Amino acid sequence: MAEKTVDVTTGEVNVTYKNLPMELERPQVEESKSYIFIIAAVLIGTAIVLLLVRFRGYRLWKVWYFLSIFVCLTVAFAAFVHQFVAIGIALLVALWKTYRPNFIVHNLAEIFLYGGLAAIFVPILNLWSAMILLVAISIYDMIAVWQSKHMVKMAKFQTQSKVFAGLSIPYKLSMGKEKHAKKAKEKEEEGVVRSAILGGGDIGFPLLFAGVLLKTTGFLTVLIVPAFVSVALFLLLYFAKKDRFYPAMPFISIGCFVGYGVMWLVSML
Asked: pLDDT tens for residues 133-188?
């Protein structure tokens, strides 16, 4: 949802962003201070979710979840089809994802909705604010998981409500029912799917960082950053113990910064 042009005389890169569908407006903030707005929004959102956890507001959480999914998917799909078609598809997917979730629909919707999120927030960020945002969110993530542990409470609340923000990565898929032949009286046991959950912020914030880099750098060069983020995430998931909660953002942010450093070196060659 953006057009990038380069002035052949000065080499200056100009980025023009298209309007969002449904007459949505991006926050009117300075790029250098936009991280303050986003951090404040995260803290306010966290406070609201904790209130829902305290009073077991599962229905209200599902309504909020549905509306968020619907808006982000509408913005994402509007980049490919007419906005009214995008609204229809987003409505269908949001309803399916919220009230009849499964691995495929959930994860596919997650992939698209963060694109919509990036279309909203990348234009109000610059590199400096994006880097500060990564550091601040990483510190917050460590405190929320290891100290206050309120992130763990929110994760459990979302799991109990059967709708959560983030990717669901199964450790092992068990298909249907397993029959045990050793004992004739044993009942068939339904397979259980154990999965690791990668929080929405763990996907959204590195995507915002990469989106900011795309303002001034070519697509193939910027791909270095998600490559290093993927390595950092793989190492975390590989060495992480099951049934334990880990703050992913510190590791993902390191991947972002290392990838950016390598990208800078490549651009200097």
From this structure: 999 999 999 999 999 999 989 988 988 888 888 887 666 544 344 444 344 334 33
DSSP codes of every residue in 3-45: EEEE-TTT--EEEEEPPPGGG-------GGGHHHHHHHHHHHH
User: What is the token pair recorded at 41?
Assistant: 């929004």
Q: Exposure of 221 by Cβ count < 10 A (0-12 exposed, 13-18 middle, 19+ buried)?
A: middle
Residue 177 DSSP code? E
For residues 72, 109, 132 and 214, what is the CA-based torsion angle, rounded to 10 degrees?
Answer: -90
- DSSP state string for 208-236: HHHHHHTTTS-HHHHTHHHHHHHHHHHHH
Residue 172's SS3 state is strand
How many other CB atoms are found less than 10 A from the CB of residue 83? 17
- Condensed to tens digits (0 to 9), the pLDDT of residues 2-11 reads 666 665 565 5
The total of other beta-carbon atoms located within 10 Å of residue 149's CB is: 12
**pTM for this entry:** 0.85
| Mode of pairing for the β-strands spanning 189-190 and 177-178 | antiparallel
Which of 261, 232, 259, 262 is closest to 247 using CA atoms?
232
Q: Using an 8 Å Cβ cutoff, are 188 and 176 in contact?
A: no
- Domain ranges in the chain are 2-175+193-268
Cross-strand pairs, 2: 17
